[in-house]
Amino acid sequence: MLISEKMPEGIEGPEAEQLTNQMFEAVNKEAWDSTKIVQWTYVGGHNYLWNKETTDLQVQWGEKEVIMNLADYEGRALKDGKELEGEDKRKMIDKAYAFFCNDMFWLNAPVKARDEGTTRKLVEMEDGQKGLLVTYSSGGVTPGDSYLWILDEAGKPTGWKMWTQILPVKGVYTTWENWTKLESGAEISQLHGSPIFDAKVTNLKSGRSYDELGIKSPFK
After folding, report:
1. Prediction pTM value
2. Helix and strand numbers, DSSP H then E, in the chain
3. Burial of 112 (0-12, 13-18, 19+ CB in 10 A)
4. Which end of the chain lies in a sparser environment, N or C, as judged by fewer CB atoms within 10 Å?
5. What letter would DSSP give residue 11?
6. Looking at the DSSP assignment, which residues form a beta bridge with residue 8?
């Protein structure tokens, strides 16, 4: 039986920021920032093609597909290959965006530790390790969630503990493992294991062009 843990106290300041810098370096955030196009599948059969440079996004799940631009939040929605309009279209775009916010966070949450609305605190762990507690007061689809990063000596995450709205048990530990390097040099964890669920990232690719990925652009 899982028992909720109280969220630990932490201290904001230079040490927390230094640990954040170390984590960014370990996962090569600079390379992620320069990555142009990313393709991946997340647990539940959510398939993504994301052009970070143009903010174009394709989301496919089951017989549904959304092709949108994140900057203007407009696009197309299809079901069984047929275009949806009006309220049906808007609902599917909203759902695709919610999927993307969650699944992109699980794809590369370490690089989002300094997103707008975040606070970072240094936490002294019981085993003498130092953890990085990141709280999201705004943004995404579940503002208020907190994550305690557990890092190795190089600053690369080995797992985190979660205090989130969606999970009734607080402080659940989930691994960050099976790291792989993208074409750009960014490091991505493809496996997250916990007592409640296992989440895998599959079909992960990145490139500087659609030709490099061996696909045609679905965007106009």
Report:
1. 0.92
2. 4, 14
3. middle
4. N
5. B
6. none
Residue 70 and residue 83 in contact, taking contact as beta carbons nearer than 8 Å: no
R_g over Cα of the chain: 18
Q: Which of 208, 175, 209 is CA-nearest to residue 190?
A: 175
Q: And the tokens for 175?
A: 């691994």
For the chain (length 220 residues), average pLDDT per consecutive 10?
Answer: 87 98 98 98 94 98 98 96 96 97 95 95 88 85 84 96 91 96 97 91 96 94
Residue 91 contacts by C-beta under 8 Å, 6 or more apart in sequence? none
Distances 104 to 36, 110, 152 between C-alpha atoms, Å: 15, 11, 23
**Residues facing 69 on adjacent strands:** 56, 74
* CA 117 – CA 156 distance, rounded (Å): 23
Q: Which residues contact 126 (CB under 8 A, 6 or more apart)?
A: none
